[in-house]
User: Fold this.
Amino acid sequence: MRIQKLRVERLFGIFDHEIPMHVNERVTIIHGPNGFGKTSILKMVNGLFNARYSELRSIPFNEFRVELEDGRSIVVTKSGADQNRLLRGPEDRRKRARDRHLVVRLLRGSKELEKTELGTVPSEEWEPGHFHMAFEQFVPGLIREGPATWTYIPTHEELDLEEVMERFADLLPPSIGRPERKKAEWLRDIQRSVKVRLIESERLRRVVKPPRRAREYEGPPALEPSVAVHSGDLAKAIQNKLAEYAAVSQSLDRTFPVRLVEKMQARLGENQLASTELRSKLDQLEAKRARLQEAGLLDKQQDPRFQVPEELQETQRVLTVYVRDVEQKLSVFDDIATKIDLLKEIVNTRFSFKRMAIDKDKGFVFNTPDGQPLLPTHLSSGEQHMLVLFSELLFRVEPNSLIMIDEPEISLHVTWQQQFLRDVQRVTELASFDVLIATHSPQIIHDRWDDLTVELQSPIEQTV
Assistant:
């Protein structure tokens, strides 16, 4: 399910913003000065569709409306008084979060189809236990500052106990004694159908989920460098594909004799490739295997050509079975190979004095011009930002998702900013997802002001 339009009324008690999504181009850009609510809008979308309701509670607004492609709208309002008062500090924000529920309605036109209220989980509903310590153990980046206050390092937020419980409760094992909250099934269905992912401005450190079976408290877990996490994840993805390749190969090799006999017994010419077509297919398969070797998916061999025994060169039926088997085996790598090729092309045309390759065991591998290895964590901050962003887009995004990127220009050279949008569009064409970008940078927008950009206006401009 795709989002067609976003609208928020009285954001911070000041702004009314409407953002039509450019669904045909698959890219929409929000541009505006600091303080106009670009990041807040992304967080509100993320909060609604990923059930991070504390983010919706912490941002003041009157109404938040999301229009879907099927003609329905989701409307979020807040119960309680004084909704437009600006938040002056952490205590004020936390008090308002406790005092107000979110009201979520599903509409078709003006007709209300569904309605639910989303409240916080009061701390008294929790069973006695060591959940204060458990949060630090099971939530990387969450640091306890006081008896019932925490700092969440990735977002620099100060959170109280109820906010921590609401946001991170499902990371704790059941043995901690967390209460179960009732969830509206209709809202869960929509959240499953509208896939949303937020890539925040803090991208160089990644919160890694600890193993759920961990039992002993070992202190606050460290955050991992994002490039190292992405590199390891890509290596795992390659290993999974190699395992799939091995399984397909084993299955085809086991049944090869039976299928060969069936082919030999068939009438001459039935589903059989001509000799010229066979040679062409063999050349294409050789080129494909060479490409997969270059992508780091298959090992290079001394003699890379397919070995076809001389006595079988003229046996078209045998070669027909052989060629089709190899095509099926190598097709396992089609999707990941195409993505690796695009990532390597983007990186190697941007990065200076280093070249990236892919290793099936290590993931990203970099070498300097004199052949010296370079760890991904030793790249510049701009290079890491670029690598993390495109690794995220290529390897972590589900098709037909909405991917929101906050300030992609961080640490990027002006030239890279100007090329960024074109590279993103190449990725969206390959992976079929929508992108919503919040940026301050005219260079990111470059020559797409008229057709892709929604400029957020001040209240004075909105009344003119």
Remarks:
- The longest helix spans residues 226-265.
- The CA atoms of residues 331 and 443 lie 39 Å apart.
